[in-house]
Every structure is written in C-alpha cells, then in structure tokens.
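Predict the 3D structure for this chain.
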Amino acid sequence: MSAVPASERAAARSSSPSTFLALYRLVLRLQVTPLRVAGILALGGLAVLLGVLARGDDDPLDVTTRVALGTYGLGMVLPLATVWLATSSIGDLVEDRLLVYLWLKPVPRWQLPAAAVLATVTVVVPLVVVPLVATAAVAGASQLTGAIALACVVSVAAYSGIFVAAGLWLRRALWWSLLYILVWENGLARAVVGAGRISIATYGQSLVADAAGVTIRYADRPTLASIVVPLVVGALGVALAVIRYRRAEID
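Done. Predicted structure below.
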C-alpha cells in the first residue's frame, strides 16, 4: 500500500453538495443487491411469524414486546441487517478497486464515511421497520407501532456509525461485529447488571417497553436517553470513521 503525500492530502477539496450526493448514490447502488434485500426481508418475515404466534398467548402484548420486537426484532434482525450493509459499504469499494479513485479526487474526507452511514440508514430502516410494524399489528399490539418505528431509526443510526467505522478500522470487520452482536448485545448486556447501559439494543427496547408498559430489567432507560444516546453513538462512529479514512493508505 502506498501513502498519499501530505501535500496532496492538504490540498483544497471541493465541498459541493453534489459530490456528497454522488458518493451517497454510489454506496447505495453497491449496497442494494437482491441477496441482501431478500435476506433482510426473510429475517423480518420470521418476526411477523412470531407476532402471529404471540397473538395466541395469554398476554400477547408482553410476549410481543419481549420476544418478537425486543429479543428478536431489535436484538437480532436490526443489528444483523445493519452490520451486513454497513461493514461492506466501503469494503465493497475496496474489493471493486474504486476506493483509490475516490481517494484521489478533491473531495472532503468526511463525505464518504458520512455517505456510507446515510446509505445504510436509508436501506435498513424501511426493510426493518415495515416487518416489525407488521409484527406489532398482527400480534394485536398496534399501539407499539410508533415506538418500534422510532426505536428502529435511532438504533440503525447508532449501529450504522459503529459498523461503518469498524469496516475502516478492523480487518474481518463483519466477523468482529457479529461477535459483538452475539456475545455483548445478546449475552453479557442482558446477563450482567449495568452492562446494558452500553448496549445499543437496550435503548431501542426501552422505547418499546415503555410504550407497552412492560418492565424489562435490562431495558429501563429513560425515554430521552433512549433517543439521544444512540444518536450520539452514531455520530461518534461517523467521527471515528472519518479519522480512520483521513489516515488510511490506499493502493
């Protein structure tokens, strides 16, 4: 890998909105493939099935909140869908040998990571929100639709920032991110008292639990914190991604 001279990195760069939109459309085209869309929709379809099963329970609202929307929807479907797209958003550019051309263009370094995060949010939110809202509806818990939609938006924003940054900082970022989702988000954060406060999933789950009036031990965050904290985490992820991209050596 060859380093770009400091004089080139310090050169004036165009900050036209059109360059950001071009990067956004490029990443979007790379992310949206039939396989990825079908895979995410399949995961969402299982959530709808869980909603159908929850409807027959003695307390469908509780089961829907804890299992269909909480443990499975926000704990598995949403982070898995996001990690699949976010870690590959810039990784696909590397594989297609397009990143070097973007690197050499006079474009502000923050634009590509920010475009990758925005593209990930654009794709994942509708693909996850629609089946999870349908899950609440078929389970007879339509009062949760607003909360689940909000929880999805703020959670995807957080995960997108983190996983785009992971794709730039780590080798085999997808596997490390999957390990984080399975071991931390769906393991230690629920089993260890206090660990849930640094788990993204618990903030989204808190929004849904609060709307349902259901108490979940590891998801008891205040409403304001459940919105603000994931957005701050997402912003920090973008900042880390920009820092890494600025220092990267591209071949």
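The radius of gyration is 19 Å.
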